[in-house]
Amino acid sequence: MDDRYGSDVLADGWRQRGAKKVLDVAAERDLVVEVAVDGYCGAVTRVQGGNVELEDYNGRKRVFPLGGGFMIDGEPVRLTPPAPAKQGHRRTASGSFVAADQRARIALPSRILVEGKHDAELVEKVWGADLRAEGVVVEFLQGVDKLDELLSAEPPSAKRRYGVLVDHLVAGSKETRIVDAILRGPHGKHLKIVGHPFIDVWQCVKPQTLGIARWPEIPRGTDWKTGICKAFGWPYETQGDTGRAWQFILSKVHTYRDLEPTLLGRVEELIDFVTDPSA
What SS3 class is residue 231? Predict the structure, then answer.
């Protein structure tokens, strides 16, 4: 005869009977989870020292211990450390395979020159590992109008080539007129100048990377970075304000996929130019 009341309720395991199973989930970067206790929701940005850092949609970051207390799609999960990347299959932020020997080489005489600090920081974040492996240094000019002065003081040569990245290199722009004049000069053989069409390197970050549909249109006559900060409701009155705005934007960039293709191709072109062994 069947026992209509089931087995002894005090038997081993009675407390777990009927409880929902909690899954173990590796805290991989960009995994979105909810904190059960207060509803805070964010994406994984870092796992270190037994803790996981989460960043919400507004850029606010909080740190929590790994383990239970998290939810994904309403289901409880236990966050575990991510599996270590396999050697030989890892890629750099630019998409290149990580070399077995990751020691930085002695810097080449050749250089990549960019217009400003923000350009240099963006190139470093995505291509930094590749550049160190090749021994290529990136320097910034504080504006393309400083390029002619640098070329006169330290002219390029067969042993010291310059690859230059210029903002807003489009027909009729001030930058295009400066570049055309320089290329008509004596340095063309050992000098390569390329550019992207955007007003500022900020725009080389895809809008989707920032969670927006498109970059705001800034009226002519308004400082572009100031206008962007105003449009986003960020502080804009000091240089420090725009610097913090850029650091927030840069924090959203993790790989080449976060950047516009028109920048990617130009930077790769410059790296090939200054590292060409046949030069």
Answer: helix
